[in-house]
Amino acid sequence: xxxxxxxxxxxxxxxxxxxxxxxxxxxxxxxxxxxxxxxxxxxxxxxxxxxxxxxxxxxxxxxxxxxxxxxxxxxxxxxxxxxxxxxxxxxxxxxxxxxxxxxxxxxxxxxxxxxxxxxxxxxxxxxxxxxxxxxxxxxxxxxxxxxxxxxxxxxxxxxxxxxxxxxxxxxxxxxxxxxxxxxxxxxxxxxxxxxxxxxxxxxxxxxxxxxxxxxxxxxxxxxxxxxxxxxxxxxxxxxxxxxxxxxxxxxxxxxxxxxxxxxxxxxxxxxxxxxxxxxxxxxxxxxxxxxxxxxxxxxxxxxxxxxxxxxxxxxxxxxxxxxxxxxxxxxxxxxxxxxxxxxxxxxxxxxxxxxxxxxxxxxxxxxxxxxxxxxxxxxxxxxxxxxxxxxxxxxxxxxxxxxxxxxxxxxxxxxxxxxxxxxxxxxxxxxxxxxxxxxxxxxxxxxxxxxxxxxxxxxxxxxxxxxxxxxxxxxxxxxxxxxxxxxxxxxxxxxxxxxxxxxxxxxxxxxxxxxxxxxxxxxxxxxxxxxxxxxxxxxxxxxxxxxxxxxxxxxxxxxxxxxxxxxxxxxxxxxxxxxxxxxxxxxxxxxxxxxxxxxxxxxxxxxxxxxxxxxxxxxxxxxxxxxxxxxxxxxxxxxxxxxxxxxxxxxxxxxxxxxxxxxxxxxxxxxxxxxxxxxxxxxxxxxxxxxxxxxxxxxxxxxxxxxxxxxxxxxxxxxxxxxxxxxxxxxxxxxxxxxxxxxxxxxxxxxxxxxxxxxxxxxxxxxxxxxxxxxxxxxxxxxxxxxxxxxxxxxxxxxxxxxxx
Length: 805
Ligand SMILES: Nc1ncnc2c1ncn2[C@@H]1O[C@H](COP(=O)(O)OP(=O)(O)OP(=O)(O)O)[C@@H](O)[C@H]1O
Ligand SMILES: [Zn+2]
Ligand SMILES: [Zn+2]
Hints:
GIY-YIG endonuclease; 6 domains; 25 helices; ATP hydrolysis activity
């Protein structure tokens, strides 16, 4: 029997990966197992914290006095063997703490909430019991300690032993219950009960008939009443007569219960889809830990390949995990998967309430759901026997988490594929350069869908040079050709989608006459406008120069920061086209839960002619009547001070173009830009992913960027800019001798948005090809900066960051 538990404790100010030993009280010795949550005392005083049991052992001779576990939170482990291994791996590979990782893997409601209480003691005087506690055993600390006088009085009482402060760990997870009915009578007893019912009581007979069909099962009262057409009053009568019992029935909050999703059957695959599905199925059946890159143009029917591959895994008695970028943004995808697999599907995404997420999580854990669809953190879904993992739109940067642990869902997916011996499918029309490069090397197997379903052509793309447009007429967000095209669609009762790129809003300057963007002379990366210092800064190398008043390239005075809002665009368009019915989709109009899905449904049902939106409309939408796509400003993302700016622009333009002409009617795309000759725009015009890939790889090679180099970003932030900067210079001195001479250290530099939440950010970027000392150095850094964190300086380590801002 296990007598000692190694517990990972949740103490934010004193994190460590070293577990603490606690004694397991005799009564629980056969019950406490690894992966359970427990409440333990920590430090001096009465502090209670939540922790995870990592290991149990039966060592009986330990040094000193071990504290005992206070309470056991779970009846069964919430982290199984795989999950425990995964936390250890995740912590090591992202340089974060194991407790943070464990918490990230579980639904938010399972995170402990602490309540500070004031308790009575054995020696509390009757007056204090009455005045302070009003007869209760404990009170909320904050409610009785609002003034300094009160606090000082409490301190006095505490010193006198009359009261004590206690930290209560609150379990926030609540199950939802409904009233259910069940009967313990046998069929024969029910029949004889029928004979006691007097002639006219038809409803009582209906009740008995209903109960007879239950076969000992429990049914919710509501469902029972609906199905057998009896009232709650009749149920009460039945209860009084001893025919039935009312019980509390645990129910799941099902976020999709009210939406009626039509069941779908597998489509007949085209030749390319068939080849891809066969290869994946083969790997599923053979339990191959293989990674596929499914590179399929927009509208090539990747989803159908996913669905039929998932079916193959289910046929083997296995489960499947399907990741999509922030799913609340693609309600269409949920419908497709639920339509095919019905109740076997659990959905996890940030649009759900915490209770809903918890319920879906439990459904997966209890193996009641075999298919999980979800956004980033769904990669930790507690599925057993995974047969296939799919990652749709694998290039999406929302798969990377910005806070600790800074993990990429792709990394976790690959780890789980090793654990479960199953294949991973990375799907995209525009794979990330890293992924495509790995396929080139043969690390991943490449599967290609080169054509749209039914050989529909990809839409024609016209590039509109906004420099000449602006010379022709007054400043407007709309070029003449785009307006003509919009009017034309209005006349033909076809729909249009307009995208306004908000990324990089106003943070760089652009010449409206020649399209020139100011770049760093050292790094070939856009300089960022810093209004606080009135300078242009390179945040890769630290180069700084004044804000130009005229364009260094053409000497025009039309150089200014760039940016415009969706609301303004909507107003302008409504003025220009008073008859058009417009839906606007941006952070403002989609803030409310479910608003996103509603707006899309409205557009889908033809209640609007034009959908204006930010990047959120670029992906996944499949509306047959959309024949026109307009991109109002292709350049904003290009101007970002990030070596991935071209890649992101190309991906975005290709994705949004892909929304046009997906069904019978041919589509057309208009891209407005000040940089018509930029290669990202040229390749997007020709839907030429492969061309872009080769060109961009050459650029990365030349600049010494990923995938040719690996990168790690270290940030320091503090309310005091001087402290953050000083710490980074010290850190640079500290890092240099510890790392390989070949390794490049960039910075320290202020982050482009240097001040967020009143904190100042500084960063160092480590670039390397091979760095044997990296792991040791960064692990040391993580642990040694604990003391500084307590003083308010925050250090962040980000392996392979996706954003340098
Ligand atoms: N074999 C098929 N036969 C008929 N229709 C199909 C077939 N496969 C897919 N489709 C239909 O083609 C359309 C496009 O498919 P889907 O949305 O899966 O494309 P996709 O590759 O995911 O595109 P995107 O990357 O643009 O999201 C959908 O409406 C889908 O129902
Ligand atoms: Zn530079
Ligand atoms: Zn210029």
